[in-house]
Design goal:
Elements: E1 2-3, H1 10-16, E2 17-18, H2 42-49, H3 64-77, E3 81-85, H4 88-99, E4 105-109, H5 114-123, E5 130-134, H6 139-145, E6 150-156, H7 168-177, E7 181-185, H8 190-193, E8 203-207, E9 221-225, H9 227-240, H10 246-256, H11 259-278, E10 283-287, H12 297-303, E11 310-315, H13 318-328, E12 333-334, E13 344-346, H14 358-363, E14 370-374, H15 380-391
Parallel strand pairs: 4-5, 4-6, 6-7, 7-8, 12-13
Antiparallel strand pairs: 1-2, 3-9, 8-9, 10-11, 11-14, 13-14
Helix pairs in contact: 3-10, 4-9, 13-15
The structure holds pyridoxal-5'-phosphate (PLP).
Pathway: Amino-acid biosynthesis; L-methionine biosynthesis via de novo pathway; L-homocysteine from O-succinyl-L-homoserine: step 1/1
Keywords: Amino-acid biosynthesis, Aminotransferase, Methionine biosynthesis, Pyridoxal phosphate, Transferase
Pfam families: Cys_Met_Meta_PP
Length: 392
């Protein structure tokens, strides 16, 4: 890595940390579409395979583009090291698979991403791995949920789509006291808004598909942690093959250059939407971390730089009112994705969380009238005007 004019500030690091250039002296990082690498001689080949020498061997292990993305993400989040995967779910699966064995137990926040829920409920039990869920807003459940065989505490904060928050510093201390790994899905916050490793977490995971790409173009996953833990991730990932393509790594690394300005605008727009919705008579409830009415507002202020780009509302009138509101939106896209330049509306009860029972949904704060809004980068007046007309 070549660190030109290195400053300690996030924006500068996100732009100036870059892979070394070739003899062509490219200003922008080239794309290395190569599956494998040449060795100078048989001795070099031996030394690289024996890990006696650093260098690229095969793109399932490393590639200049994936290495650049890893190095940047690690610096931006204050982690020693990292690994990247094809998707956010591959990052989550790889992390669990690297650290868990039959007989182990995972304590997870109840409101985890739908596919994470599927892994814990339906896939890991086949391999003898058990789980318990605890509510993010009832930290005592975290304490009570730790068992002698608990290996990992896994949380999403802010959670999707309930926007619940837990105090990461407190949780990291609890995990340390019990010798348990704390793994945080940091997808909603990105390294710009929240840095779990600095707050004491062992591993921070991102679906780079969301705000890190930020333009709805590609899938990707990132795992960050200490050198020691990432070596264990690598030992699993090198041989099981969840590798990110060089092309996607190149896109995502370029996206990091604009992450700070994009997140600033996402947050500014989302805050205005949250304030508007809170004052609207047809809205029963609004959840946004930086609204003083949020039950964990003080914690959000302590551990997040800003509130993020996601606002969840509950409309009066249940499922019918929610569909009507969504169908009347003219500019917002109806999509299951989030973290795009384009504003998006999702009805969690019938899409991302349709596999849950009604009771399970209510436990994670999803009502029939809940609508998750991913606030984009369009002009705030146009965003507000669309919401206003759809509610009228
Ligand atoms: C989207 C998402 C994931 C999964 O990421 P993919 O890139 O779609 O595999 C995991 N966690 C959260 C919080 C997400 O929003």
């Amino acid at each position: 890595m070549q660190e030109e004019n290195q400053e300690e500030n996030f924006e500068t690091l996100a732009i100036r940390l870059q892979a070394e250039r070739t003899h062509f002296k490219e200003h922008s990082v080239p794309l290395y579409l190569t599956s494998s690498y040449k060795f100078d001689d048989s001795e070099e080949m031996r030394a690289l395979f024996a890990n006696e020498k650093e260098g690229n061997v095969y793109s399932r292990y490393a590639n200049p583009n994936t290495s650049e993305l890893i190095d940047k993400m690690a610096v931006l989040e204050g982690a020693e090291s990292g690994w990247v995967t094809a998707t956010g779910m591959a990052a989550i699966f790889t992390t669990f698979a690297a650290f868990l064995k039959s007989g182990d137990h995972v304590l997870a926040s109840r409101s985890v991403f739908g596919s994470t829920h599927q892994l814990l409920n339906n896939i890991f039990p086949k391999w003898g791995i058990s789980y318990t869920y605890a509510d993010l807003d009832k930290p005592e459940q975290m304490e009570q949920g730790i068992q002698p065989n608990t290996k990992i505490i896994f949380v999403e904060t802010p959670s999707n789509p309930g926007i619940d928050i837990i105090d990461l510093e407190w949780l990291a201390k609890l995990a340390k006291k019990h010798g348990v790994l704390l793994v945080v899905d940091n997808c909603f916050a990105t390294p710009y808004l929240q840095q779990p490793i600095k707050l004491g977490a062992d591993i921070s995971i991102h679906s780079a598909t969301k705000f890190i790409d930020g333009q709805g173009r590609t899938l990707g996953g990132v795992i960050l942690g200490s050198n020691k833990l990432i070596l264990e991730i690598e030992a699993f990932a090198r041989h099981s093959g969840p590798a990110m393509s060089p092309f996607n790594a190149w896109l995502l690394s370029k996206s990091l250059e604009t992450l700070a300005v994009r997140m600033d605008r996402h947050c500014e727009n989302a805050m205005k939407v949250a304030e508007f919705l809170e004052s609207h008579p047809r809205i029963k409830k609004v959840r946004y971390p930086f609204l003083p009415s949020h039950p964990q507002y003080e914690i959000a202020k302590k551990q997040m730089k800003q509130g993020g780009g996601i606002v969840t509302l509950v409309i009066e009138g249940g499922a019918a009112a929610a569909s009507k509101f969504m169908d009347k939106l003219k500019m917002f896209s109806i999509s299951a994705n989030l973290g795009d330049t384009r504003s998006i509306a999702t009805h969690p009860a019938t899409s991302t969380h349709s596999k849950l029972t009604e009771e399970q949904r209510l436990e994670v704060g999803i009502e029939q009238g809940s609508v998750r809004l991913s606030i984009g980068l369009e002009h705030i007046n146009d965003i507000l005007a669309d919401i206003k007309q759809a509610l009228s």
